[in-house]
Design a protein that fits this description.
The protein has about 200 residues and is α/β, with parallel strands linked by helices. Helix content is about 40%, strand content about 20%. It is globular.
């Protein structure tokens, strides 16, 4: 029997070493392998990277947060992989347009590069993908793609848009980025239910 694998896709300002990623790894230690890669900044590159990783590692479940959930919905739909989308930000162009300029990642990246720039070219690239993000949607994926929404998320408000496509929406009393405790209490049980339901 092969090892259960979970692929975590972090948010835009985060990295594979962020608190939610670490909490997932700790929670599933000895039960499942949790992959937490650093995602490329540019969405086309990120989608290609995630797709190639999925084709190589065959994860049982994708778990995302924010931009990671935006990307995760696209890949999960294309490849038919179960996914838990935490606080998905389905309109990244709005998020980025308010933050043009130089920034620093909030957690360390493996390549040591901590600085990046949001510019119009990046926003335009997200815009192209945003328009096509539901193209691979299929009704039969409804039981495989779930949403988890923080009741105090003041950054992303996309549960209504999620519910236009999927029906499994859950809530937790947190903000946009879950704490380690919230990951353990709310994310982990749903991930376990998701992959055991599919298996």
């Amino acid at each position: 029997m092969r090892t259960t694998k979970i692929l975590f896709l972090h948010g835009f300002f985060a990295s594979g070493s962020c608190i939610p990623a670490q909490a997932l790894k700790q929670a599933f230690a000895g039960k499942a392998e949790v992959l937490t890669p650093d995602l490329p900044l540019h969405p086309r590159e990120a989608l290609a990277f995630i797709t190639k990783l999925c084709e190589r590692e065959h994860p049982n479940v994708l778990v995302g947060n924010s931009n990671g959930s935006f990307l995760g919905q696209i890949v999960a739909s294309r490849l038919g992989i179960p996914a838990l989308l935490g606080n998905p930000h389905f309109e990244m162009t709005c998020f980025l347009s308010e933050r043009i300029g130089a920034h620093e990642y909030k957690s360390p990246r493996a390549d040591g590069r901590q600085h990046f720039v949001i510019d119009q070219l990046l926003i335009d690239e997200f815009a192209d993908i945003q328009v096509q993000q539901w193209d691979a949607y299929r009704p039969e994926l409804d039981n495989r793609i779930w949403g988890l929404f923080g009741e105090n998320d003041h950054l992303a408000h996309f549960e209504p848009l999620f519910l236009q496509h999927y029906t499994h929406a859950y809530h937790f009393p947190g903000a946009h980025t879950p704490t380690a405790e919230e990951v353990r209490e709310y994310y982990v049980p749903l991930v376990e239910r998701l992959y055991t339901t599919i298996l």
